[in-house]
Amino acid sequence: MASAAGPAVLVVEDEWLIADMVAQAVRDAGYRVLGPVASVAQAQALLARYRCDAALLDLNLGGDRGYALIDQLRARRVPCLLVTGYSRDDLPERYRDHALVGKPAESETLISALAGLLTCRRLRHSAA
Questions:
Q1: Domain residue limits, the chain
Q2: What is the CA radius of gyration of the chain?
Q3: Other Cβ atoms closer than 10 A to 12
Q4: Domain 8-127 = CATH 3.40.50.2300
């Protein structure tokens, strides 16, 4: 389920074409891909088996919101990039501090935001 390179990135997207494009962009940037998966339950199953360094998460997964998954990732101190058609103001207050990229998103935009998340994570861990 994971490819072989750098940090592990969980990809959660319920639209297959978008999921495939995102996963390929993540791989091309040198990261390992967990997934892609299309539901909160599938993502949680992967997280039970694999370590994850960051996550790219669509918020609307077939009508199910990904908030429980965000909470689980937050508890594990895994940075999460929300890739969504929702604006920051549409989110419940407690999720507005997450990095957010609006759909449709260019691959370069996603990878740049992901790299920023991972850099911040490394800096936090090295300062601890």
A1: 8-127
A2: 13
A3: 28
A4: yes
Residue with tokens 């390929």: 24
The pTM of the full predicted model, rounded to 2 decimals, is: 0.88
- Residue 91, amino acid: L
Residues 6+ apart with CB under 8 A from 109: 101
DSSP strand pairing (64-65 vs 60-61): antiparallel
pLDDT along the chain (128 residues), means of 10: 71 94 95 96 95 93 89 93 90 91 90 88 54
- List the one residue out of 77, 78, 47, 59 whose CA is nearest residue 18: 59
| 3-class secondary structure per residue, the chain | CECCCCCEEEEECCCHHHHHHHHHHHHHCCCEEEEEECCHHHHHHHHHHCCCCEEEECCEECCEECHHHHHHHHHCCCCEEEEECCCHHHCCHHHCCCEEEECCCCHHHHHHHHHHHHHHHHHHHHHC
pLDDT of residue 125: 53
